[in-house]
Amino acid sequence: MKGTTHPVLKDVVLVGAGHSHVTVLRMFGMKPIPGVRFTLISREVHTPYSGMLPGLIAGHYGFDDAHIDTGPLARFAGARLYQDEVVDLDLAGRHVICRRRPPVPYDLLSLNIGSTPNTMDVPGASEHAIPVKPIDGFLRRFEALQARVLARSGRAAVALVGAGAGGVELLLAVEYRLRQAVTRAGFDAGGLSFVLLSDVADILPSFPAAFRSRFHAVLAARGIAVVTGAPVTAVEAGRLILEGHGPIAADEILWTTQAAPARWLAKGGLPLDARGFLRVDATLRVAGHNDVFAAGDTIAFSGRDLPKSGVYAVRAGPALAENIRRTLTGRSLRPFRPQREALYLVSTGGRHAVGSRNGLVVEGGWVWRWKDWIDRRFMRKFNDLPEMTPPAAALPPLADREALKEISAIAMRCGGCGAKVGATVLSRALASIEPAAPDDAALVDVGGNELSLQTVDYFRAIVDDPYTLGKIAANHSLGDVYAMGGEPQTALAIATVPYGLESKVEADLSAMMAGANEVLREAGCALVGGHTSEGAELALGFAVNGLVPATAALRKGGLKPGDALILTKPLGTGTLLAADMRRKAKARWVMAAIAHMIQSNGKAAQILRRHGVHAATDVTGFGLIGHLIEMVRASDVDATLTIDRLPLLDGARETVARGIFSSLQPQNVRLRRAIREFATVARHPLYPLLFDPQTSGGLLAAVPLAQAKRCVAALHEAGYAAAEIIGFVAERSDALEPVTMDLTGGQLAVALAGRHPARPRAHALQTVADTERSTL
Ligand SMILES: Cc1cc2nc3c(=O)[nH]c(=O)nc-3n(C[C@H](O)[C@H](O)[C@H](O)COP(=O)(O)OP(=O)(O)OC[C@H]3O[C@@H](n4cnc5c(N)ncnc54)[C@H](O)[C@@H]3O)c2cc1C
């Protein structure tokens, strides 16, 4: 997807989008090393900034204010972003083992995976308490807590165990937010009670006395009870058992006690301290492992017990980036010198905070505004990334002479891009050779009751992750067979891999084929062979053979007046992938689009068959309108679409509003003349999405109107959550344009109610020529 100017020589894999790694990515984006490829593997692709988490819980910030979006950041750094969970390491083979993908090879590894609260030591805590860490999932856990409190009409006892700065700040934020939410819902906030629990003699034990007393005063003023010097010895449903204190009733228990390391680290063979944290030396290198670094909460730092705090993880970022750079370029490493005294600014729920540094304590609204200013400035570093020009193609300054020698022996040749051509260009080109297969796949009668289906698809890497690319490409290719009502049987692969070191090429190819094979296997389609060549960039395609009973073959020309048009997947992959390339798409939008792209159309086709489908096609490069026009022309009917019912991928509306389109869009937009009164329709904000080219899009199918609602309900149940009735088919009118846009939804409502919608008014636009129709 990126025009890589250098072959990949070194793979640096970053595990966890923690506070240090985001800085590493930013610094390498500012100053990349040619030939070094970064891969970020993270469970969550929006990483919460710990400093703003309490403000997010309190309601002062929105999700995007308080999270770093690793999508644009990874693209800025030229890094591949894999959303996955690492569960183990193969240190000898230099592979990272993930939960949902094949092992990821590395030359250099860095771990910044945070910590978890220690719930293991207290019986019942894992079952009944809500851990605050890992912080990446806490917002979801808090929202569930709030929903439970509201479901109890605001009557809830909330306890928080652990009275360090994180715990105290969090409880104040929770109290602030819940009181507001309960009051807003019309309940009495007097039904809420809060208690802060600590095993040691006082709250905030590592802070100066003046700081502690400020917080005692704040807690008392807010009616929050404090119980100290009473360790929790057990947690039961609805109550906490304490040593030296009676049991405390609690409907909701938040757990923020001392941090514990990720448990999987113990399996990996890395050196750990007594509590299980990774032992690193003064340069942040894992002791005894020259190719592994670590930073943040997960480390036991050489000679000093660093607080498990975001401040230290942030500060480690530049040192970690520098030492990764130095390792790659063969220079000696520099020690990380963490500060002795950090500035702590702790908010109290509202827009008020208390600050402490070197024994000095300050508080007030201005302290909160100061904190807010610092936090927002930090976030801007990651959310407002500068435009960079790619480095010139010179020999990389890497220390690995062997790799450099190998790569300079590879002739560098630039191949063309394997992009798909537009609908009208293709129609024109094919017009002269009269293709035998106007449908999604060629139907070949080989004798017997079944017809053979043959189809081929091929495209360049639309995502940077070869494993995901493999899945998308295979799924996309199978779509044609399903659209024709068939079952895939065999597939042949054609792959292009970029020039590069054999080991890198092989790893990418094997990840790509692993992804593809998973999809094909699940579809019962055997991968029987293929061909691979070298080229400018990664690309993959499949020739798929399928079978369909002669009587069940679905053709584009089967639309009947009185059919409903159903679309099984949301639109928007074209604009979202284009926005992703330009760092304008949020990572969660891209990940959700990928999830749709790898969702098979197989089950949808079965459901459509059970509901009397007359015709279907898979929506791909020509966009919804392009594929609909193919169907209405082949069926000699008209169609009406309800634009507001089009299912859309999250973010597509926003990216289109920003004018971000796929490079295929202009060619697809030529088909606008098939839309009646297109000049009026063009003013609708969703109009561009009618032409958005789809990768591995859904099925556009026609089922009788009477079956449509049941069919969509079955599709929802089968996991096609966005499936929707988007229009209906009518008799061919005398209008030149076969497609009408129902801007109010009224016509579809009438049709679904079993009445005849008004016959669309013929409106002959002078500009529409019949020649245009015949080329569509
Ligand atoms: C409520 C609360 C408030 C806090 N407020 C502050 C504050 O104001 N100031 C402060 O300095 N500190 C604060 N802290 C502490 C701070 O949150 C942590 O110290 C900090 O987040 C640690 O940063 P990190 O970079 O080590 O890891 P994290 O920020 O936790 O990031 C870890 C990353 O690794 C990913 N990850 C984890 N495991 C895996 C895996 N197996 N595979 C793939 N990815 C994985 C996660 O998705 C995440 O992206 C607070 C803590 C809490 C609980």
Summed up, what is this model?
The protein has 776 residues and is α/β, with parallel strands linked by helices. 33% of the residues lie in helices and 23% in strands. The strands form ten sheets. A six-stranded mixed β-sheet has the order 32-34-31-35-33-36, with helices on both faces.
How would you characterize this protein structure?
With 776 residues, this protein is an alpha/beta fold. It is 33% helix and 23% strand. Strands 32-34-31-35-33-36 form a 6-stranded mixed β-sheet, with helices on both faces. A 5-stranded parallel β-sheet has the order 5-2-1-9-21, with helices on one face. Strands 11-18-12-13-14 form a 5-stranded parallel β-sheet. A hairpin with a 2-residue loop joins strand 15 and strand 16 (239-242). Helix 1 packs across helix 9 and helix 13 packs parallel to helix 14 (502-522). The longest helix has 21 residues, at 502-522. Mean pLDDT is 89; it is low at 411-423, 425-430, 432-437 and 760-776. Bound molecules: flavin-adenine dinucleotide.
